[in-house]
Amino acid sequence: EEIKIFAPATVANLSCGFDVLGCCLDNVGDEMIVSKNDLNEVRITKVTGQDLPLETKENVAGVAAIALLKHQNSQQGFDIEIHKKIKPGSGIGSSAASSAGAVYAINKLLGEPYSANELIAFAMEGEVLASGNAHADNVAPALLGGFSLVRSYDPLEVISLPVPSELRLVILHPRIEIKTRDSRSIIKQEVSLKKAIHQWGNLGAFVSSLYTDNYELLGRSLKDEIVEPVRSILIPYFSEMDSLARSNGALGFGISGSGPSVYAMCRGNENAEKVKEAFQNFYEKKDIGFELHLSGIN
Ligand code: HSE
Fold this sequence. Notes:
By secondary structure, the chain is α+β, with helices and mostly antiparallel strands. The chain is 38% helix and 27% strand. Keywords: Amino-acid biosynthesis, ATP-binding, Cytoplasm, Kinase, Nucleotide-binding, Threonine biosynthesis, Transferase.
């Protein structure tokens, strides 16, 4: 018995929701093939597309799988094949896709003892291995789809939010690698009250905009005065890309997850195509390689 799944890329933070907000892309992701074995162990049998560890305990998919099986008290073994399309260190949830994909597939093969929401905690174990921190803002949307909000980490409480139908994301990935672990280490641990006020105002307004299909409010809310000003230093042409996105009509712009990818949130395909083209024209003249994605949120 084997199962083949699409393990989606995700955009975490979305500027106003550091570590608590994320969304799931509908056309960018890895493929995974998971099957039961008779060996009482989890094996990573194949990885294509990227050079990642095959040692189960060093692979995020293996670690997430073991967390689930341990909780289930199950001796069942599984073979996991990962066909990577998402580059590690790109900022669109590469490790989350593998962790979430592994627990999603295993849960299916076990007859679904867990709900999608319950799988988040297991997938987070993979994130600990990848980044040293158990954040859920990539694994939650990868498992639940759409937008996810982490109301609380302890106890874990994740809420699914509605997706306005015309939203599109343009993601630009400049080909440099930024490890989440490193880009977390440069963030300040204290926040001023003034910045906190701006941030929770924006996050609340963003959530409201999703329920009311208010695209203008959504765009105004995509701001971050706390983490982006520090992290953007690591990202090539950040402010130029920001201006370019906005002058071409994007609703908002920011860092995708921990970077180096950046996202432009757009209303409708036509606008997204325009922003994508502007990014492409800009980057083609630079000597950094890049990849561009245009995706819906689902
Ligand atoms: N919220 C996490 C961070 C996401 O920004 O570090 C990592 O992809």
